[in-house]
Amino acid sequence: MGVLALAYLSVGCGRDRVVQSDGIALAAPAALDFGRVGLGATVVRKLEIHNGGRAPLSLDGFSIPGSGVDFELLPDSRTRLREGQTSTLSVRFTPKEEAVLSRMLEVQTNDPRRPTLQIPVTGVGVRPRVVATPASLDFGKVELGSPFTMPLLLENDFDIPVEVVLGQRGDPQFSMSPSGSVPIAANGKINVNVVFLPTRLGVAGGQVTMVPCPICDEVEVPMAGIGIDQALVVTPTTIDFDYIPVERQSHRSFTMSNVSSHPVQITSMNTRMHRPVFTFTPFTGTLQPGETRTFDVRFAPVQNDPEEDFIDIASDSRRSPVIPVHLLGRGGGPKIQVTPRALAFGSVPIGARGQLPLIVTNAGTDPGPALRITAFRVENPATTIFGADRDLVAQPVAIPGGTSETILIGYEPTQVSDDAGDHAELVIVSNDDSFPEVRIPMSGSAFGAPTCRSLVLTPPFLDFGSFDEGWGGVLSFQIFNPGPELCIMRDLRIAAGSDPVFTTRPVSSFVIPGYQWFGWMVAFDPHAVGAGTGYFRGELELFAANAAQRRYAIPLVAGSLNGCLRATPNFLDFGTAANNCGTSDRTVRITNTCPVEVNVGPILLGAQSSEGEFTIAQQPTTPFLLGSGASFDVAVHWNTLVRGINSAPLYLYEDGRTDLPLTIPVLGELLDDGRVIDRFVQHRPLTTDMLLVVDNSGSMVDKQPRLRSAAHVLLDEAARLGVDLHVGVTTTGVSVSPGDVAVCPGGANGNEAGRLFPVDESRPRIVTRNTPNARQVLEDNTQVGLCHELVQDLEAMRLALSEPLTSGANRGFLRPEANLSVVLVGDEDDHSGYPPATYSDFLRGLKGIGGSMLNAIVDTGPNCSDGVAFRMIEAAHLTGGTVSSICDRDFTPAFRRIADAAFAPLPSFFRLSEPPDNLGIHVFVGGNELPASAFRFDRANNQVSFAPGAAPPPGTSFEVHYTKRCGS
Fold this sequence. Notes:
Blueprint: E1 7-10, E2 16-19, E3 25-28, E4 32-38, E5 43-51, E6 57-63, E7 71-74, E8 80-81, E9 86-93, E10 99-109, E11 116-126, E12 130-133, E13 137-143, E14 148-156, E15 162-170, E16 174-177, E17 180-184, E18 189-196, E19 202-211, E20 219-228, E21 232-235, E22 238-244, E23 250-258, E24 264-271, E25 278-279, E26 285-287, E27 292-299, E28 306-315, E29 322-331, E30 336-339, E31 343-349, E32 354-362, E33 371-379, E34 386-388, E35 397-399, E36 404-411, E37 422-430, E38 437-447, E39 456-458, E40 462-467, E41 473-480, E42 487-494, E43 502-503, E44 507-512, E45 517-524, E46 534-544, E47 550-560, E48 565-568, E49 572-577, E50 584-592, E51 598-605, E52 614-618, E53 624-626, E54 631-638, E55 644-654, E56 662-670, E57 675-681, E58 687-694, H1 704-710, H2 712-721, E59 724-731, H3 774-781, H4 793-800, E60 819-825, H5 836-847, E61 852-858, H6 870-879, E62 883-885, H7 892-902, E63 909-911, E64 916-925, E65 928-929, E66 935-938, E67 943-946, E68 957-964
Parallel strand pairs: 4-11, 13-20, 22-29, 31-38, 40-47, 49-56, 58-59, 58-60, 60-61, 61-62
Antiparallel strand pairs: 1-2, 3-5, 5-9, 6-8, 6-10, 7-9, 10-11, 12-14, 14-18, 15-17, 15-19, 16-18, 19-20, 21-23, 23-27, 24-26, 24-28, 25-27, 28-29, 30-32, 32-36, 33-35, 33-37, 34-36, 37-38, 39-41, 41-45, 42-44, 42-46, 43-45, 46-47, 48-50, 50-54, 51-53, 51-55, 52-54, 55-56, 57-68, 63-67, 64-65, ...
């Protein structure tokens, strides 16, 4: 408190009283408390000095002893205060250290009672702390030109306000707001917006700097970011399906990735040209950082033309708001089809290699690449006893559209099989995009073969004689097995060390049954290897596998010499003969090409593959002199005795060619011996089994309803004529059609593989006149769906009428006593593996001659646009069936023709396939020959009929044996 100075004065009236005569110093406030102040910050407090007396108050001095630099006194300029006046002092507190500071402010006055006025001054120096959250700023990957903002939260966790100085260092691609000196209230918070705007690719870095007090250390908040070209990456941006067969489909995929560190909004995904052949499932929404989505694109061409479209992907990307995916494809290309669906090798002796043909068909259409087989594998289990006999490196398989190639598959067991036999799967790998692998089950069983006693090679050597330089020839030989045991021939080839002028087609394995023979040929061709004149030797070798690998060999000799005699032609080729219907002659003219006469020696036939097969019919008497330029003829007679390839060398000796005569190879092939076996089945009248094979590909969408509308004709006509009719339906789908999404009814999804429709037996599958609501059931059964694409009408028919289906899934449909009618209905030609004749032979073997008929409702030409069904038309003609157009608006007339043919009364006679010779015919029933009185042969009409009471019961098969007439 201030001190009052009093003066005692005399006052009148005789009394004494006290009178104040000095200034009184009063201070307010009584103490200065600065509280908590941040280091380096300055806080100012005011102190008032008041003169509370009547006399002037003199302020003689101001000080804060020991204050150092923390407290600073700023006195008022007035040092004398009259009564009632006030002087204001300013005290500034600037702490330089963290400490509690206490001082005394002293004011010197003329107040006698308290000449030194003391006012306590206190303050606390504290170090301010501003906490940045987060401690670092990682912007991650940001698309060029797209600013990305991150908030930086600054928190003052003291109860005093702080003024923080914000700045930044580093890459100018970063910026922030606010910046500079920014106040933060006590226990307050502020947000600073930091922006990364990349303008170049690559890594960027910097720091946000904070100074929370003037003498505080700088605090750094690291900043990092990466500039990227675009946030949304699509791979690939072009999808080329290349060639895909019509009505098939192929799938490709592309990925859409957010490679940035921030979400990308996908706003739309649409095809630009809306081509229905390209389909996919779009996505809209948020693609999170680092997220990748895969999209499946399907291409299903409907015509053999190029197709194109784009998928436009729209997003909130500033740099690439729309990314297109280019779609390309073409209708056409390879479509694999393999026949048969399984390979059963049967019993094969150990040491032999059984072989079966596998027909690979390219059912695709041109234009487009060929079907290429890229690998064969054996799996389930992997074994070496099965395999393809084809080196794909030395002999690549490339099959143009609409053609086939036969590949031999081998089975070479090494030990006796158990009761289950040997089994594996052949995997065929191709460039068929929709069906890259085809699996074919294989089976076989092995047995130990008895020892082969011997083999006889005829002739024992092959003497080619000599040819003019650059010319060569071919001779044949036979390998005969004279014993009852089979002989396994292995590795027939030209032996090592032979002159390269000799060649043959190597045979790795061949079984020669007892008392049978094997014929083969060897060629002499010096020109092929660039050999000149000279003498050549070699050897053909082979081994008997079941005779301790006994080796057999045929010596080979030949010469290439230039003589005077020249033969025209230089090779007598009789071609082929159908049977032993007589002999034929060929003539060769021999000319002396030298300027002098030549002495012609013996003319004779060398060792023949079958002795007596060829004879010389005409020749001049030798020896004789032949003048320069003169000629003579030699005629050779072919006796057509032994089936197979037969050859002999015709030798002509001349001066200078006494060791190796001029050779004219003689060759002829007898195809058969004329014996014929015709098989027939005795059918029951008015009994018919009818199989409809219906195309279930997509292009049948407008034809199946026509079929449904007309199918009732079959039942109506059968009822009218009293025919006991079975009608079944199957589809052209034989193998699984990969990639298809359409669903077909019936339980097999279009892969009936010969099974009657519907496979799930949801309706009766064999429709008869007695089937409840038969007409409706048959109409429904013809609606097989539109889900398949590989049309195999003929193979589906064969499977439906063969084991194991005839006694399994299709049991009860095919009756021995019924005649058979097959109806193929489709708008695309058949792509089965075997030739049409194979399937007509199958029907003939099943029902005998005249017991079956194949009909076709197909593309027949001008009025259709799908392509003529040549194979199905050929098959129908081979069986005597009807052919109608699939493009007719009404199938009723076609079915009436089919019914008329199928339900016609059976003839009482059986027509033979060939006219017999004069030796007549022999009829066998159940292996027993019937007496001549049991049948009649009408030679004029070439038909057989049974005598009254001698006909076998319905369903019985019988055979007619005879030798066909020469020239037929």
